[in-house]
Amino acid sequence: MTRPTATRPTTSAPARAAVIVLLAASFSVLPATTAPAHADTIRARQWGLEAMHTTEAWRTTKGKGIKVAVLDTGVDADHPDLSGSVLPGRDLIGFGASEGDRAWARHGTAMAGIIAGHGHGPGDESGVLGIAPDVEILPVRVILESSDKARDKARKTRGTALAEGIRWAADHGADVINLSLGDDSKSAHPDAGEDAAVQYALAKGVSVVASAGNGGEKGDHISYPAAYPGVIAVDRYGTRASFSTSRWYATVSAPGVDIVIADPDRRYYEGWGTSAAAAFVSGAVALVRSAHPDLTPAQIKQLLVDTARNRPKGGRSDAKGYGTVDPAAAIEAGAARKGADPKNATTGYRGQYFGPGPTAPVEESRPLGLLAPVAGGLGALLLLTAFALGRTKRTH
Q1: Membrane-spanning regions, if any (predicted)?
Q2: Confidence (pTM)
Q3: CATH number at residue 372
């Protein structure tokens, strides 16, 4: 396939006032103890692709013509599994680790690989294959890795980088925005600027996907931005996934345990978290958008709900939403839907924030306008149980 020339995100001035206060979760990397993995070993471990019926979806499209904005820690545009698929992006942090540092772009590269990895080598047979390998990635750096030495500075800083990043992506051609990030600490609260940015993106026809949260064993607090109206909030499925947040806003579920991910160090790791699940769903949305470009974000969200597999008893649960995303089924069902004006489907603040919800009242909102401090931890990001699966030879 023909791919665009990759360039790295442009950097904002370090002194800019809007600085994100969320940090990427720790990687907890263990020394590599396994022999270098063969290509087929890595592909064989990518159970999520089979679970989401991607082969069936690829009979229609692999996402060509769609741009997915990855708002994260940055993306390694030179990674062999992503080379040529990463567009010029934006750095809204302006400080912290840079390319070549161990604490640079690990989480973002992992998410981009889940979404758009195309492999490498003869026939692209080596490396990670994403759920939508023909999409383009638009990287927007809005958070720092937890191992970044500048994280203490970020923790003490309030800002609006996430809201700015959402608007920037919507204004620069994104069709889907992936938010594999969030704050589900005790101090987490809705932010008017973030909510407005989400509504802005939705009104422009951009689907917004976010991690439901990893705080299931730590108080199960509401996670933002997953809880904002109109967002496709993704929980995980798979064994050993009790960490996943269970809340009224969960829309669908996707693979989130034992997920093979690419890393800037050219190794492959296994990790878990609702951030990985969100990336899978962003890729699925990209496939649906590619097949049915006239459908609105609300229509696509409803398609995912209507065609979800493995529905919980009663049709929905706070732990799994309406079931597991099936992009092939959504693409097929989408043929019967007629496009609409996305501006007619946006929501936002209406009196009490979000209303009571179907299972429990929403916590009282706090003063708005600033991002919540990191404080109690970050529930929605990918956490690695991580061991190295193998190393590929650098191509640059």
Answers
A1: 368-390
A2: 0.81
A3: 3.40.50.200
